[in-house]
Amino acid sequence: MFRNYLIVAYRNLMRHKVYSVINVVGLSIGIAFCILTFVYVRHEWSFDAFHEKADRIYRVYTETGFGQSGMTPDPLGPALEEAYPGIRAVRIGRGASSVKEGDRYLGRSIYFADTAILEVFTFPLLKGNPATVLEDPSSLVITDAATRKYFGDEDPIGKVLSVRLWGPPAVDRDFVVTGIANTIPKNSSIRFDFLAPFAARGEPRNWRHFNIATYVLLSEHVWPADLEERFPGLVKTWFGENADQRVGLQPLLEVHLNRGGRGPKPVSDPVYSYVLIGISLLVLVIACVNFMTLAVGRSFSRDREVAMRRVSGASRTQLTQQFLGESMLLSAMALITGVVLAELLMPAFNNLVGMDLVLRDHTDGAGLAFLVGLSVAVGLAAGGYPASVLSGFQPVVVLGGRHRFGATSLFARALVIIQLAMSAFVVVNALLMVRQIEYLKTKPLGFDSEHVLRIPIWDLWQRDSGHVYVYRNELMRHHMVQGITTTTHALSNRTRLLGDVEYQGEQFHVELLDVGDEFLKTMGFSLLEGVDFDPRSSDSRASILVNEELVRRLGWKTPVVGRTLQVEERDVAVIGVVQDFHVRSLHHRIGPAVLRLKRLDKMGWGMLFVRVRAENIPATLAFLKDKWREVAPGLEFQHSFLEDELKEQYKTEERWNRVLQLSALFAVFIACLGAFGLTALAVSRRTREIGVRKVMGAYGSSIVSLLSRDFVKLVVIANILAFPAAYYISRIGLNRESARLYWVGY
C-alpha cells in the first residue's frame, strides 16, 4: 500500500511539473535557510561547552558607573583564593607584543596564564605534562595549529623562542617550548597560539589597572551565590572604602552569548541568533504557505479525480494518506535540494556572518535528526490542510456539478495575504535597517574624523622614545600635513582607558584620555569654555579638560574653569570644557571624560594622528612611509584612516543588514513563484471566459486588468497588515539599550 502511494504521488508530481518545480524550489530555499541557521546557532550556543568542568567555571567581572567589564586587576585571583579556600583562580592576559624565532616573526597571539589553566580548562596536551609544563617561568606551550603553521613537520619541543615583553622598558626574553596543546576549538572564548606562565609577565601588579581576565573553578560543594554574598565587604578591603567597584561571577557558558543577561556585554549578541531563527522560519513559512496555496488552487481541477476514487471504494483516510504522501515526497526532494543549496551557499554565508563554519561538522546524530525532523515537519505542515480539503470532497455533489469552492477559495486568498504580508514585512525591516546603519555612519561624533591617519607608535616607542619626536618633526615639515597630535586612546571600540576620579568624597570612573599638543585643534574638538592646553606652561601637568557629561554628573554650574578634582590620586584644576564626543561606537552612551596633557615620549601606548589635506592623499601616504623607513628601519609601517576605523565598528550591523536584504530577496522570490503559479491556475480555470471576451472584442489590457484586479487587492491588504507589524518590531529592536540611539535617525 505504501509503495502504491509513492508511485501515485510520483506520477502526480511528474504530471504537473511546473507546480512541482515551483514548490520544490520554494521549499528548498526555506530548508536551506533553516540548515544554515541550525549550523550557526549550534556553533554559537555551544561555546566553551567542550571544557569538562565548564559548569563550575566562572569569569569574574567588575562593575562601575561605566558598566560591567570582564577585565580585573592582577592581584584579584590570588586574593580570591586566599578568601575562599574552595576555589582555584586562573588569571589570563596579554603581556607581549611579538614572538620570534631568530629574525622570523611568529605573530603576537600569546597569552600569559597561571599554571592552573590546564587543570581548570580542558586544553589537552599532545606533548608535555599538564602538571609541570608551565612551572618554569621561561616555559612556553604552542598549539598544534601554530606548530604546523610555523614549523611544519618539525618538532618544536626544546626550541628557544624570543618573546618581546611589554614595558616600560620593553625587553626581549627567551622562552623554551615545553609542550604542544591540541588545536583550540573554534567555539572557544579563549584562543591562543602560544601560552606562557603568568609569572613571566613584565608588568607591575596593582589594584588600579584592569587588564587581566580572572576565572575561578568552584568546588562541587561551593555555590556562586555564597561567594558573591561576601564580595561587598572584600571589595572595600581590596579597592578602598570609597571605591565604586562591584565584583560578580558570570558562568563560563554565558561569556560568549550571555543569554542569562548577567555580566559584561557578550562577545556575540544572542539577538542575532534569534533574528536568524526568525528569518529562516519566516522564509520557510512563506514557502509552506506557497505550497498550500498552490495545492488548494489545484483542488479545483482535482475534484473529479477525488470523486472517482471515492466511488471506487477509497476511504477518506486513504485519500488523506495519498495526498500527504505527495507532500512528503515533495518535501524529501526539497530536503535533498536544500542540503545541496546550503552547501553551495555556505562560503557566502560565512562571509556574511564573519565565521568559518563547515556543514560537514554537523552531520552527526543531532544534525541528521534535525534534517529528518525538518523534512517531516515541512511535509506535514505544508500538506496537511490541502490533504484535508481534497479528501473531504463528496462524490455525489462533485459528479453532479453542484460543488462550490467558496470556503476553499476564501482560505486560499487568506493564505496569499499571509504570504505577501510576510514578504513585505521582511522587505520593510531590511529597508529600515539600511536607514539605521546610514544614520550610524553619518551622525556627528563631536570631532572631525575625515582625512585623519592613525599610526600606532608602540613599536617605535619601544625601540627608542626619542624616535617618536624625530618622526613627528619630519612629518610637520611636509606641506600636505595640516596637524599632528597623539593620544593613548584609539577613539574607537578597540581601546579604552578608565581613570579614578574623586570629588567631595565621591569616587567614580571616567574615560581618561592622555593627549598630546594641539589635540583639540588637530582633531576638530570644540572648546566650550576655558582654554586649551599650553605645553610651555609649568602647570600643564596639573591641568585637565573635561566634557559636558562630567559637568552634568557633578552638577557644576558655569563657570567651571578653576574647579579642582582628584584624578588618579592627583589634585588637578579644570582649565576648560570640551563639547561631548563619542570615544566609542554609538551603541554606548557618552560618559564623563577627562583629558590630560602627556609628553610625546611618554605615549608608549598611544597613536599618532596625522591630519592631511584632501588633495593627493596617496603621495602624502607614500611620504609618511618613506620617513618611517628612515627613522625606524626594520619596523613595519602600520596605518589606517580614522574614518574607516570608525565605520568598521558597525561591520556587524552591516553584515546582518546584508543577511536581512538577501532574506527579503528570497522571500519576494518565493512569493513571486507562488503568484506565478496562482496566476497560471486562474488563467487555466478561466480559459473559456477569456476566449469569449476576446471574441467579443476585449483588449488584452482589459483582460490583464481583469485577472490582476483581485491579486492587487490582496497585495494592498497584505501591505496594510505588514507595515504596522514591521514598524512595531523594528521599534522594539531600536529601543534596546545598546541601540536606542538609532531611533533618532527616523
The general outline is globular
Strand content: 15-25%
Oligomer: single chain
End-to-end separation in angstroms reads 61 Å
Largest sheet composition? 13 strands, mixed
Q: Average pLDDT value?
A: 82
**Structural domain tally:** 3
Helix content: 40-55%
Helical segment count: 20
Q: Could you walk me through the main structural features you see in this protein, from its secondary elements to its overall organization?
A:
This protein has 746 residues and is an alpha+beta fold. The chain has three domains: 2-43 and 270-438 and 656-721, no CATH class; 54-241, no CATH class; 452-613, no CATH class. The protein contains 20 helices and 24 strands. The strands form three sheets. Strands 1, 2, 3, 4, 5, 6, 7, 8, 9, 10, 11, 12 and 13 form a 13-stranded mixed beta sheet that branches. Strands 16-17-22-19-21-20 form a six-stranded mixed barrel. The chain has a four-stranded antiparallel beta sheet with strand order 15-23-14-24. Helix 2 packs antiparallel against helix 18 and helix 11 (406-442) packs antiparallel against helix 18 (651-685).
Short précis:
This protein has 746 residues and is an alpha+beta fold. Helix content is 48%, strand content 18%. It has three domains: 2-43 and 270-438 and 656-721, no CATH class; 54-241, no CATH class; 452-613, no CATH class.
